[in-house]
Model the fold of this input.
Amino acid sequence: NAGVTQTPKFQVLKTGQSMTLQCAQDMNHNSMYWYRQDPGMGLRLIYYSASEGTTDKGEVPNGYNVSRLNKREFSLRLESAAPSQTSVYFCASTLFYGYTFGSGTRLTVV
Amino acid sequence: AQSVTQLDSQVPVFEEAPVELRCNYSSSVSVYLFWYVQYPNQGLQLLLKYLSGSTLVKGINGFEAEFNKSQTSFHLRKPSVHISDTAEYFCAVSATLYGGSQGNLIFGKGTKLSVKP
Done:
C-alpha cells in the first residue's frame, strides 16, 4: 500500500519557469490537499479538493493552480516560479479524520 | 475560523526525562485536535487525535495528550523520552462540520524536540 506518492522529490527551477508537482493516493480518499512548509511557519494550505471535480483556495493560493484529475490524482502547478515559492510542498489526503501525507517535494527557485 | 498556538518553538530535554509540548487553540465551534510528528526530511505522521469521548488520548510511541476544553489546550506528553523522539511536532485543529465530518486542518508552527544523551 503506497499511500500518498509525490513526484518529484527535489526540483530546482529558474525564476519564471513553470512546473507541475504530482500527487497520487491509492486509499480511495475523497479529499486531497496541498500545503507548503517554510521554516518557523508550520504548514499552510495552498489549495484543496473536497471531492473529485471540486477545488478551492486555501490560505496561500496566489501563484498556484491545481487540477483534480480524478479521484486518485491532485496536481499543483506553478506557472511562473518566483524565489518566494522556494519551499517544501506536501500533498495529503483524507477519508474521514486525520490526514495521510506524502513525503514531500523540496523546491528551490533561483 | 480556527487557529493554533504552539507555545514553544524549541524544547531541549535529556534522555529518559519527561516532556510536555504545549498547544492552545482558538475556535468558535467544536473542534477535532491532532498531533503530528515529522522526522528529518520526511513527511508528517499522525501521533494521536481527539475526536470525542475521553479527554485523555493515547497515541503511538508512548505519547499521550489531554484535551482541556475550558483551557482550550491539547498538550502532548511523554513520561520518558528517547533519542529517537528527536523530531518536530505539530499540533493541528479542524472544525467539526455538519454530520460530524472534518474541516480543513489548521497547523501550528511546530515545536522542535531535541533529546540529548
Chain B has a mean pLDDT of 93.
